[in-house]
């Protein structure tokens, strides 16, 4: 397999990457981010879109992503494939469009490259209901995890407000520099907490994939700040 390591995703989002190991080890105990001690650095390898395994993973995930419920349309032309360290699964992430699907909407599918079979999937619908709020609905393996109301106002970028929503202000600043708005960053961060709690790790993988879907491989430098 020809792959290229783009960035190392650590510290602020490391808890989510550490939790992602539960995809392969469902008996692992997953602590909340506040309970996590500082983990060792974990690499996430971004596969080039021309890599055979990446192409095969996208092909395997395409039937699922082309048939998403709730009016979602997957941007498969810009699908991103990653492989967190310590797993043998590939994660395919795409941005979503459709009625009431605003920026920050994404889906992710876990693919076993050995069999070509898909296992877990997450779908996130972000609807900007006003300039100050987004309604974010998460589905895990087709089951609704509920809707969260996320403050996406300009004031949300304030360090205190961001921290209250579970976002590291330093990460937000870095994502902003890459052209990812505070609103989108806060939306995805909000789904991380929901999905990680609901799926004991599965959603945590797609949490990172969500950032990759909107920011590409370069987003890794933000998650390692």
TrEMBL record:
Top-level division of the source organism's lineage? Bacteria
User: What keywords are assigned to this protein?
Assistant: Signal
Presence of the UniProt keyword Signal in the record? yes
Record's signal peptide = 1-31
Recorded protein name is Uncharacterized protein
Q: Which organism is it from?
A: Brevibacterium koreense
């Amino acid at each position: 397999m020809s792959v290229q390591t783009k960035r190392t995703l650590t510290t602020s989002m490391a808890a989510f990457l550490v939790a992602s190991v539960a995809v392969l080890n469902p008996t692992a105990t997953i602590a909340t981010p506040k309970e996590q001690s500082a983990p060792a650095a974990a690499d996430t390898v971004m596969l080039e879109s021309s890599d055979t395994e990446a192409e095969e993973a996208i092909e395997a995930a395409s039937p699922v992503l082309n048939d998403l419920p709730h009016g979602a349309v997957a941007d498969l032309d810009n699908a991103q494939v990653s492989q967190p360290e310590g797993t043998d699964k590939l994660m395919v992430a795409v941005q979503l469009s459709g009625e009431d699907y605003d920026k920050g909407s994404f889906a992710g599918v876990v693919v076993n490259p050995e069999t070509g079979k898909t296992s877990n999937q997450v779908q996130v619908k972000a609807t900007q209901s006003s300039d100050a709020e987004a309604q974010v609905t998460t589905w895990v393996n087709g089951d609704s995890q509920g809707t969260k109301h996320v403050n996406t106002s300009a004031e949300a970028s304030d360090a205190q407000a961001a921290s209250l929503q579970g976002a590291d202000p330093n990460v937000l600043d870095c994502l902003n520099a890459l052209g990812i708005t505070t609103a989108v960053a806060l939306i995805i961060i909000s789904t991380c907490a929901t999905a990680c709690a609901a799926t004991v790790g599965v959603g945590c993988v797609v949490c990172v994939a969500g950032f990759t879907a909107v920011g590409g491989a370069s987003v890794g430098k933000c998650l390692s700040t």
